[in-house]
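Readers outside the structure-tokenisation community will struggle with the description of the input data as it stands. I therefore recommend that a typical entry be quoted early in the introduction. An entry of this sort, consisting of the sequence and the corresponding backbone structure tokens, reads as follows:
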Amino acid sequence: MATAIFFASSTGNSEEIASKIASSLNNIEVFDLTEKKIEKINDYDKIIFGGSTWGDGELNDDWEDVWGDFCKLDFSSKTIALFGLGDQESYSDEFCSALGLIYEQVKSMNANVIGFTSSEGYYHDASKAQIDNKFVGLVIDEDNQSDLTDERIKNWVNEIKEDIL
């Protein structure tokens, strides 16, 4: 089966990052979770999920809308990579924590999660998306470090490419 990206984006930033990742992976399919039925995820063995963190470490509204159905999916035979967006200066105590919520859910369903990245170069106090010195996926801060986004995507895609395609 093929690979796809599923994302939710409140401001368009997650959509832009999803498009950049898809382009780097030879234009794999990209789906906005608000426009597709959540069951479409079942059509893929290898999936990249993405979105942004809102408020006090919460999923954005579009992720919230599909969360109940998402939690019913079986990820046990799937390879999953994750990307998240956050603002490490304004929300230093919950930086990209929504990514950690998605990670915990797919991991609890025995998914093979790949694409952990170093937390080096980020300046935050806490994150549910961080285990020791690693984030559970690609972490992007378009508000404070947009100049690093393309390089971070390139490095992450090179790391996951063999396992996700």
Remarks:
- Residues 132 and 155 are 20 Å apart (CA to CA).
- The chain has a mean pLDDT of 95.
- The first helix runs from residue 13 to 24.
- The longest strand covers residues 46-54.
